[in-house]
Amino acid sequence: MLLPRLTKSATILLVFLLAGLRIAGAQSPGENVLSVAHAARATVNRYTAERLRKEFQLRERTTATPWSAGTAMTFRGPLLKDILARNALTTPNGIEVRASNDFVSKISTDEIDRFAPILALEKQCNDDDRASGLCMPDQTYRPLSLEDGGPFYLIWPLNELPQSYVPGRNAIWVWFVVAICPVP
Question: CA–CA separation, 43 vs 45, rounded Å?
Answer without folding.
Answer: 6
